[in-house]
Amino acid sequence: MSYPYLEKILTARVYDVARETPLDLMRTLSRRFHNTILLKREDLQPVFSFKLRGAYNKLFGLSEAEKAQGVIAASAGNHAQGVALASQRLGIKAVIVMPVTTPRIKVDAVRAFGAKAVLHGDSYDDAYQHTLGLIEKHGYTFIHPFDDPEVIAGQGTVAMELLRQHPDPIEAVFICVGGGGLIAGMASYIKALRPEIKVIGVEPDDAPSMHEALQKRRRVVLDQVGIFADGVAVRQVGKETYRLARQFVDEVLLVSTDEICAAIKDIFDDTRVMAEPAGALGVAGIKKYIEREGVQGRNLATVLSGANMNFDRLRYVAERAEIGERREALFAATIPERPGSFRAFCRAIGKRGITEFNYRYADDALAHVFVGIQLSEGDKERETLLKELRAKEYPIVDLSDNEMAKSHLRHMVGGHARQLQDEIVYRFEFPERPGALLNFLNKMGQNWNISLFHYRNHGAAYGRVLVGVQVPGGDHSHFREFLNELGYPFWEETDNPVYQLFLG
């Protein structure tokens, strides 16, 4: 097998701006999982992510004519800052097109490095299309965030450092995957020098672009991607990155949002650094791998790829970390509506810690309770508790993995609307920009009545919205047309037990 990227990585020009980052032992996590877990600290780069490496290597190799014309990139995150700083160091004019939904902290960072930030559209795709128009008008050179040989080679220097820093055996290296630039570069280098090391990609389960591509043996375009780990929210991996991944990547693991939040907490506990969601993917993947394989005493490495975390997202991370670690269970219980039944239910739960208790009168016979319970033994304890409660004839619904319960119900007030007719419920993701709600209402017009509305902002580019609408049975197809024309991701939740028990 040939390794054309080996020389490109060895000669990549990155250290004019990037630093060689340490490979730290995660002491707490290593003890807990009985393996040696190593963390490559790319959060310590000047732009708090690895992206600077590939951007600088690409810009350094441009012709003088290209440098004089200027460069352009479309990005809402770390690539934008990498291109901006690289351009500043090389004296190149840079334009960065970012969605209007990009958090202010990232826009300000780009401008602080001397680049021009242009805000356009709600998504990366909108920004990218605007970028193409600016290239045609001004002749800028486009700096691709991942699908470029020079960018891939620059990112591959992370692996060069890692293997030099840890010459002893390594079972596997876990690498976050978005468009594939980091894993393509690192895998090319690792397999050239140490082919016995497994290279394992990690993606969010709601943005599995590389996982699906490798499964189907062709690049795929996902209909939509989750927005929590925005640094890897890519609908299609690169052509070159996919080619290299097919050659050198052993597998791609998928992890949930809750597992990512738990990994962010793990990293904080060991380093006191708050990783961004994409930056914690590798740690989440390691934990999943250990659980699946049952390994002990092995060396496992990963990359903390970035720490550009918005402060207002921390609340959401803290909420979901305990569930991701399986340290909290969420149950819906139905209890008799009579004196003493509430106390009896609490006694049935035992001396476990209660994280949340929401009670709502249902009728003269029954009451519904939404309860969060601390667990010390994870899923095993949750299953045991479920059996104990059901043995005492409590109707219990396990909501620990119910997205509507986790994102909305535990933050809502109100209750049943018994007289309400024809209500259906949908969960949406609205772009976090002025006018998103008004756009929804304008398109809905006066055709249907909104009967329930709950919105939460998690510091991301999109807010989570729960909407109840009164739609007569004969009008459902018309309403579905409205949803498709709206252009916002949506999921129907009318049959969700959360709605049926607490809101319907």
Descriptive overview:
The chain has helices at 5-10, 27-33, 51-60, 64-69, 78-90, 104-112, 124-138, 149-165, 181-193, 209-216, 239-248, 257-271, 281-293, 314-324, 341-349, 378-391, 403-407, 436-444, 476-486, 497-503, and strands at residues 23-25, 36-41, 71-74, 94-98, 116-119, 141-142, 172-176, 198-204, 251-255, 299-304, 328-336, 354-361, 366-374, 396-398, 423-431, 449-456, 462-470, 490-492. By secondary structure, it is an alpha/beta fold. It folds into four domains: 5-50 and 149-322, Rossmann fold (3-Layer(aba) Sandwich); 52-142, Rossmann fold, CATH 3.40.50; 326-401, Alpha-Beta Plaits (2-Layer Sandwich), CATH 3.30.70.260; 415-503, Biosynthetic Threonine Deaminase, Domain 3 (Biosynthetic Threonine Deaminase, domain 3, 3-Layer(aba) Sandwich). The model has no long low-confidence stretch (mean pLDDT 88).
Question: Could you list the spans in which at least 5 consecutive residues all have pLDDT below 50?
Answer: none
CATH architecture of the largest domain: 3-Layer(aba) Sandwich
Q: Give the total of domains.
A: 4
Q: What is the CATH C level class of the largest domain, in words?
A: Alpha Beta
Q: Provide the gyration radius in Å.
A: 25 Å
Structural class estimated from helices and strands? alpha/beta
Mean pLDDT across all residues, rounded?
88
Cα distance spanning the termini: 61 Å
Coarse morphology: globular
> Which strand-content bin applies to the residues?
15-25%
- Counting DSSP H or I runs of 4 or more residues, the number of helices is 20
